[in-house]
């Protein structure tokens, strides 16, 4: 699907509500608007997670426009959707002053921390060491929620675990070689 020069990959399955014209107009009734913003949040997270995209560039996102029903969000409506994504903890501005790029937090750091620790326990990494690279891109993490996640978000999740006394971080020669010991 084309949207202003940007294409939604055919491998990404759009939900039914994406083809409902009122979805592209921010609703005035508060309860309806909250549900609508939740659907936008869900769609944006699924899109970015499925396609392993870590940054939402506001003017390039193909989801804002649905040519098949001739509907699109206005700049003001896009701002409302993005503000909701950030307020809910699933995004943060990469450029606080110009507000054109949002780091997508596929999962909140606390959720990722829980996923990482569950993985470490299930795979026998308690009382042993692995590297940040192994957590990010290793063979043992295929299909895990933290596979390929933005390194800064991964490190925040590890910081949560460290704060809970569930791991310790060790500096390697490069950031990818930094080690993690799980307890």
From TrEMBL:
<dbReference type="InterPro" id="IPR036390">
    <property type="entry name" value="WH_DNA-bd_sf"/>
</dbReference>
<keyword id="KW-0813">Transport</keyword>
<keyword id="KW-0653">Protein transport</keyword>
<dbReference type="GO" id="GO:0042803">
    <property type="term" value="F:protein homodimerization activity"/>
</dbReference>
<comment type="similarity">
    <text>Belongs to the VPS25 family.</text>
</comment>
<dbReference type="InterPro" id="IPR008570">
    <property type="entry name" value="ESCRT-II_cplx_Vps25-sub"/>
</dbReference>
<dbReference type="GO" id="GO:0000814">
    <property type="term" value="C:ESCRT II complex"/>
</dbReference>
<dbReference type="GO" id="GO:0043328">
    <property type="term" value="P:protein transport to vacuole involved in ubiquitin-dependent protein catabolic process via the multivesicular body sorting pathway"/>
</dbReference>
<dbReference type="InterPro" id="IPR014041">
    <property type="entry name" value="ESCRT-II_cplx_Vps25-sub_N"/>
</dbReference>
<dbReference type="GO" id="GO:0016236">
    <property type="term" value="P:macroautophagy"/>
</dbReference>
<dbReference type="GO" id="GO:0005198">
    <property type="term" value="F:structural molecule activity"/>
</dbReference>
<dbReference type="InterPro" id="IPR036388">
    <property type="entry name" value="WH-like_DNA-bd_sf"/>
</dbReference>
<dbReference type="Pfam" id="PF05871">
    <property type="entry name" value="ESCRT-II"/>
</dbReference>
<protein>
    <recommendedName>
        <fullName>ESCRT-II complex subunit VPS25</fullName>
    </recommendedName>
</protein>
């Amino acid at each position: 699907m084309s949207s202003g020069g940007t294409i939604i990959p055919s491998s990404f399955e759009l939900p039914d509500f994406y083809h409902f014209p009122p979805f592209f107009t921010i609703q005035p009734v508060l309860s309806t608007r909250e549900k609508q913003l939740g659907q936008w949040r869900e769609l944006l997270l699924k899109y970015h997670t499925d396609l392993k995209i870590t940054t939402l560039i506001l003017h390039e996102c193909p989801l804002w426009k649905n040519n098949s029903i001739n509907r699109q969000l206005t700049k003001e409506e896009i701002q409302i959707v993005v503000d909701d994504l950030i307020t809910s903890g699933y995004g943060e501005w990469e450029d606080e002053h110009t507000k054109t790029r949002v780091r997508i937090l596929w999962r909140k750091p606390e959720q990722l921390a829980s996923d990482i620790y569950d993985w470490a326990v299930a795979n026998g990494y308690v009382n042993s060491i692995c590297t940040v690279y192994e957590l990010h891109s290793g063979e043992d993490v295929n299909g895990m929620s933290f596979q390929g996640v933005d390194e800064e978000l991964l490190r925040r999740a590890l910081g949560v675990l460290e704060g809970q006394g569930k791991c310790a971080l060790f500096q390697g020669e490069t950031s990818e070689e930094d080690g993690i010991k799980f307890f």
